Fold this protein.
Amino acid sequence: MNSAADGLCVEKVHVWRGERHVLKGLSLKVGPRELLHISGPNGTGKTTLLRVASGLLRPEQGTVTWMGRPISSSSSQYQAAMAYSSHEPALKSDLTALENLRFAVGLKRRVTLQELRTVLDCTGVGPIADLPTRVLSAGQRRRVALARVLAMRATLWLLDEPYSNLDASGTELMSGLLQAHVEGGGMALVVAHHALALDCNVHRLELNS
Amino acid sequence: MTVGAWEAFVLIVRRELVLSFRRPEQLLQPLVFFLIVTTLFPLGLSLQLSLLRDISPGVLWTAALLSSLLSLDGLFKSDADDGTLEQLSLSGQSLTLIVVAKTCAHWLVSGAALVVVSPIVATALGIPVAAFATMMLSLALGTLTLSWLGAIGAGLTIGLRRGNVLLSLIVLPLATPLLIFGAAATERAISGSSAVGAMYFLASVCVFTCTLAPLAATAALRITLE
Amino acid sequence: MWTWFYKLASPPYVYGIAAAFVPWLLSAAALALCYGLVAGLAIAPPDYQQGDAFRMIYVHVPSALLSLTIYTVMAAASAVALIWRIKVGHAVAAASAPIGASFTLAALVTGSLWGRPMWGTYWAWDPRLTSELILLFLYVGVMSLRSAFEDPARGDRAAALLAVVGVVNVPIVHFSVVWWNSLHQGATVVKLGAPSMPGSMLWPLLAMWLGFMLFYGAVLCMRLQGELLNRERQALWVREAIKS
């Protein structure tokens, strides 16, 4: 139904962290209009798998391909089409939310400040867009990180624990945005240790130790 | 529409400058260190100003080297700590471009600042005004080379315990030619003879380093990021 | 034709040949060093200028040459390991570094002892001595960097990059006596054209050089065995090797 050539394909990757064999020949596929939920107990390699899929970590064995081509040789095309969000919000504490977005998204595509303000409004941090992020709460920082992912207009979302620190309205917002993204033709790889209450096409990959 | 290399370069330099000026005390600390270290020598040796002139090129350059090293540690560290270095590496721009932009911005706020402050220090050490032009040019070339050597060292030592000590251990041996020829150039300028030979050497070391160091620094960063 | 190259990438294969080479290298080294020491210390005539003090050459020059050679070997092995991701390269570099550092220290110390009667000073800040000292610092830097990482694989790669970057110092050390006015004597052996030294003094020197090289080879093989066992300790072949 979905071939390897229209999305992300991770094949038989092995990763060792020092002496630990963290990923043992794992494979996964994500295509358009699909969401892959990676779950499992702590320490089973969920974040490592996401980092391998994003290209941050090179697996000792196995391949990662995007649209049929290995990401190691087509990294700029792959990076242009994907957005990665790590467990920490990855924001400069001395910059405002707006500046953070401008310097991050501005490297991927040309954006106007007005556009960024609109996205920040979408995720509910519009009023505090001009405050340095060090004064924001953890939940607000998570919303800014979410705004960054949104603003990048990427086809593939790679999200590590995107619901952490979000309150009830934030959780609803996150789910709504994920759903809209997937239904609109995008794909997503989400690492979350809890269940996702989503209406769209969700596959599940459970990692165990 | 993807962002071109020049635009990305300017954006990253702007980012670095905005971040540096948000913490002005971090900009001033290496400069103050430069001033303090240069005063230690004459105080410790209690020489008269005319005799101080003999050792002044060496003192100036040693102090410049040591204070540049102070600020090198922060080149990648803050971005590595808050996770933004990863985001930069996934931005679709080449890692080399990112490294070049960050290092250039770093030199602007540290090395260039040092060059601007050097006449004050030079006067305190008894260096005649006629030698200032050569001294400042040699410092400019030297600090630029040092920023690049430091980029390699910083890339290798991100996140290590006592990383700044190791950084100095790595960078200083590679930087000794700078010290030797920079001080020699300043020395010749003070005594009135031609400093051209030493300056050419300094310039060639600078060009050599600026050409090859970006590749080495990018490789170092890749090793650390993985 | 490339099969021998691919075999060299295999740790158990390299372990095997290292183990096999050690006795040959040690005995050849012993022979060369014996000849060199006897011929150099006892048989060669005293120098007309330096008298018997010149005999320091038989330890100083081979040490210095070896300090440069070993750094080059270390840098080459590091480059191979980084470019082709061959882990044996990292093992060779890690095994060589302390040996190279020791020879550099030996060269500096013997040079210093020789400098006292020759130049009247134990040390001078001239280009060759300074660049050789920098070489020592580079060795120490590489070793420190390797051990500073918790993840040994990352430590290997960082140290490898530093080794490759530092190799620029090796030609500087060698050509320092040509490029600058140096207190140190010019090149007498490793240069284009015939060596500028009489045979009775030259042959023991070459023998000592050869002996030192063979000694380095033997010690490298011994250390390499240890490095490979340590790095591959989870692998099956290591358990077999330990049992036997």
